[in-house]
Write a structure and sequence with these properties.
homodimer; 202 residues; 19% strand
Chain lengths: 202, 202
């Protein structure tokens, strides 16, 4: 399936600025992008990168510096078949999780991100538009309903876990199977047990 | 499948004390317990509650005031067949998610909780013991490997989401299908979009 991987090329992952320098955040974001591209291909997808600026990566790149929603909707508007949209910061996205995404029926298939986001989508309805602002999962569900489109959900911890904040790095250390978790280990990150949820130190 | 649902009856959900009174936390925890019991039954499971103190609920109750790990291991030690262990605070545990848990093959099947926990287990190996302290998912994986037991993972956002902290309430409002999400709405909670992940206000 054609799979668009949006990528924010400039100053990525700002919510990780307390633990990673700007150069490190760039390198880490590109490593996650590379992992996602590999998982998309291993799951039978055909990835293209939708980037805010030119980026050197192992897939065709379309540069569109408009907002994420506008850029994705431009792709959807020109598509003549199903299109998947898979975020570049899904450091846990395994081939098996993406196979489930592709295999789930429905006019619109969504994998919720933790905190109301929409981390992965399959769009098979010509009129569906994305809006990643705000509580996007709720808005996408509502929009599908308003269109009379069948809406399905993929229940996946791997796809729900976008790597945005320090606590997310613990998920990557625990469950990561790609280069991004190795990158974190090489950068000196390790798990720390607390009274509540596990976190990381460096 | 026989399914043990551990429940902490005294002063539950202390990490929600900033948004719920002690009496409210008790009521909320019991509502989640009831939802979990309903989902277990709907998925074909046979639930029993393993509680730290007597509790009035719609399933047989075994009272064991020892530590969670000790109490669960006592149950596993007496079992003569597969046993599932499903935490009582999985407010998003749907019948479909639990059906996936039950249907997954392996001597030990685990659904990771966010932050290194083990939110649901199926144990089919006579020597496997739980240890919920620390990074339990990693420890359970290691223990299964040491026993030569086949270890499988259920990749589920619903099962990964134990409701412990304020941010978790947003997941329940977004994705909940049982009485606990209705309880939260009745208590005045609603979603609030932020620059990052969605949170809740009351």
């Amino acid at each position: 399936m054609r799979t668009v991987v949006p990528f924010a090329a400039g100053d990525p992952k700002t919510r990780l600025a307390d633990v990673l320098s700007s150069a490190e955040r760039s390198a880490f974001a590109r490593t996650m992008l590379s992992d996602v591209l590999g998982s998309v291909r291993a799951a039978g997808g055909d990835p293209t990168i939708l980037s805010t600026a030119p980026v050197d990566a192992d897939a065709p790149v379309t540069v569109d510096d408009r907002s994420l929603s506008t850029a994705v909707n431009a792709v959807l508007g020109e598509a003549d078949g199903p299109v998947a949209v898979v975020m570049a910061d899904l450091g846990l996205a395994s081939p098996a999780a993406l196979e489930r995404l592709y295999a789930t029926g429905g006019d619109v298939v969504a994998a919720p991100g933790r905190g109301g986001g929409t981390n992965a989508l399959v769009v098979r309805h010509p009129e569906f538009c994305v809006d990643y602002h705000g509580v996007s999962f709720r808005d996408h569900r509502r929009c599908a309903r308003d269109l009379g489109a069948a809406f399905s959900v993929v229940d996946s911890h791997r796809l729900a876990t976008d790597i945005d904040e320090r606590a997310d790095l613990a998920e990557l250390l625990l469950h990561g199977e790609g280069d991004a978790s190795a990158w974190l280990r090489d950068a000196g990150f390790e798990l720390v047990a607390t009274d509540g949820r596990v976190t990381v130190t460096r």
